[in-house]
Amino acid sequence: MPVNEYMKSITYPLSLLNTPVWLFDIDRLRIVWANTAAVSLWNASTLYELQQRDMADGISRTVLERLNQHYDDLTGNLTSVAEHWTFYPRGRPCSFECFINALDAPEGERWLLVNASSEDKASDSDTLYRSSALLHTSVSISVFDRHGMLKYLNPAARRMLGANLLTLPERFVDRQDWHLARDKLTQMAETHIEAQMVTANGTAWHSMTLELCPDPVTGNSSILMSEQDVSDRREAQLRVHQLAYSDTLTGLPNRTSWLNKLTERLDIADDTQQRLGILFVDLDRFKLINDTLGHAVGDKLLVAVARRLSGCVDGDQYLARLGGDEFTLLIKENTAEDHSTEMAMRIVKSLAAPMNIDGHVLSVTPSIGISLYPEHGSDANQLMQQADLAMYAAKESGGGVRVFQPRMTTQIQRRLLIENQLREAIDKKILQVYYQPKLHTSDGHVIGMEALIRWEHPTLGWVSPTDFIAVAEETGMIGEITQLVLYEAMRQQTRWAAEGYEVSVAVNVSPVEFRQGDFVAIVREALSVTGCCSKFVELEITESMLMADSSTIQTILASLTSLGVRLSIDDFGSGYSNLGYLQKFPLDSLKIDRTFLSDGEISPVIDMIIGIARTLCLTVVAEGVETIEQREFLIAHGCDQLQGFLFAKPLQELHATQFLKTYAEPGNRWSHRAIVST
Question: Which residues form the EAL domain (predicted)?
Fold first, then answer.
């Protein structure tokens, strides 16, 4: 049927009705036809004017979705839908009960037939329910005109705003949020946004739905806004984000954040030809601090270190904590590597000043490795690996700063080889115990032997104790090495005693082993198994081990003293010197750190240490003696025992026994003392 004939067949009978009736095109959002009563209801002067009116300005997305759903339902099983609609025919609201039907329009168009059959008599009660809901809901609801001027607030909104009756744009803390919401309203008639909003109590994060709708009084287009405070949820989300991307101890970015930032900066650097420097910072001897002073002190030290590192960082540099005592720093590099090196030296200088942590004066030194982009790699993992290798190279050379060099790969491979084969060396008893004599200053006779562990590897040759002891401490094998030396030294002392030589044996104790709850039992068992006389056993502990919890240390030391063994401080003055604990603990002797005799010079500190030890009735041992001048100075200033290459290097059991037979008896032998080596 032609369109004109179809329209006549439909509209003619409808035009005779006194109630408002109209045809609505869902897709074009226009009224296709209306009878005289409907034209008046829609407040139009003519049908043509009504047909030209664009209804999109007054229909929200929610209403449009509802109309589309009605059409689908009505073309299915339903025959009619009833709704309450409000119109403004004479500038005042008027509610009607509208019945909606679907029509099969020509050319596949989707039309709805709407009949506002009578003014809704139930609207009064419906209005009461709606008003009650607005009055009692906890959701803040407000109405603004199209320009954002406030028109209405429900009680919840009034409580939320107080006296701040602001315009809608003024409510937004960030005006860009308002511009975004306004643009979406213009495009889609409805939007949802979360933003910081002004409230009576300051600002808060709100979740809001804004919708264009007719003003219920004037019928003009207005903005209906409902909002709820979601500050608690936002704070929880922020906390989750911080846990995922921030280090909980120091507040610095964590490993995940670091890798994301490094990858992002590398992408930018690739496009802009920018050079980057990656600094890998590791604290020297931090594990020792943790093992001796406890994790609480260690954690506070890390926080203090993070604070100092942050003080070194400039605006566009990126500092993070990877975990443990490892920190990383990303900086923009200049044409040469000087910038990264200068930054590394600034960090070294910043950390040099002692830190007071819970009454412990601690000095930490970093080992810093540097890798450069693009010279040392093109991706994050490769650059991190190269910086890590450079850091290990710095640590093996005693700390400081190193820039990555290809040869460092070979060095780390050697370290991994040591780690892998140290277990086999322990299990197969390949490690050997050597002995270095300690001589009495009165006449040069041997008064004791220090037991020292040595390792001859079939391909690496002699592995320095500095190398494999550090690996043993990191991997947890140090306890087995300590016990190996302890048992073997006691057995050797027993053999020497059986030959008539009353010499003591000194054993170095690892901080890790010392803090084990069963260390006293281990010493007691070793004495029992070997039959060694406890008065000839000396345990050398480091200063740092005495800096831990005093009550725990005192208990351990008292238990060891009750066994009859002697206690000595090894490497006194090497970093944590606190003369106060010399009176607090049951110590027998102290060994002056070899650094005070380094480079052939004699530090004046030695005289002071000897004087204090004399006052406290402690035996003083000087290690690292290499020249006759050092020997004479130490004898003249009252040192009790000497140890060093001037007299003998560490000796195998057989050579140590021969040395002992030669110099065991008292007598003036200083005039012909010579270095003995193997």
Answer: 415-664
Does 484 share its domain with 621? yes
Pair (269, 146) in one structural domain: no
pLDDT at 671 over 50: no
At 404, the amino acid letter reads F
CA distance 578 to 584: 11
Contact 120, 95 (CB under 8 A): yes
Q: What is the pLDDT of residues 366-418, one digit of tens each?
A: 999 999 999 898 899 999 999 998 998 888 777 789 999 888 877 777 778 88
Q: Tell me which H or E stretch contains 347.
A: helix 338-352
CA angle 166, 172, 178 (to 5 degrees): 110
* Residues 256, 202 within the same domain: no
| Bridge partner list, 229 | 206
314 secondary structure, DSSP code: -
**8 domain residue, yes or no:** yes
Task: Please state the separation of Cα 337 from the chain's center in Å.
Answer: 28
Indicate the average pLDDT of the chain: 85
For residue 168, the domain's CATH number is 3.30.450.20
CA–CA distance, 332 with 330 (Å, rounded to integer)? 7
Interior CA angle at 260 toward 259 and 266, to 5°? 85
Amino acid at 302: L
Containing structural domain, residue 525: 417-670
Predicted pLDDT of residue 678: 43
Q: Which residue has the tokens 């601090």?
A: 289
Express each pLDDT in 223-262 by its tens digit: 999 999 998 888 888 777 777 788 889 999 999 899 999 9
Specify whether 222 is located in the same domain as 252: no
Q: What is the CATH number of the domain that holds 506?
A: 3.20.20.450
Rounded to whole angstroms, the Cα distance separating 480 from 101 reads 90
Residues 386 and 472 in one domain: no
| Contact of 573 with 608, CB cutoff 8 Å | no
Would the pTM of this model clear 0.85, i.e. be above it? no
Residues 166 and 33 in one domain: no
Best CA proximity match to 186, nearest among 151, 149, 221:
221
Q: Are residues 378 and 483 both part of a single domain? A: no
Over 90: is that where the pLDDT of 604 sits?
no
- If asked whether residues 431 and 389 sit together in one domain, one would say no
Would you call 136 helix, strand, or coil by DSSP? helix
Helix ranges, 246-358 (H): 255-272, 286-293, 295-312, 338-352
Q: What residues pair up with 597 in beta bridges, in sequence order?
A: none
Domain-ending residue, one of 235, 261, 278: 235
Position 677 pLDDT exceeds 50: no
From CA 387, how far away is CA 281, in angstroms rounded? 9
Domain boundary among 185, 210, 235: 235
What type of residue is 438?
K
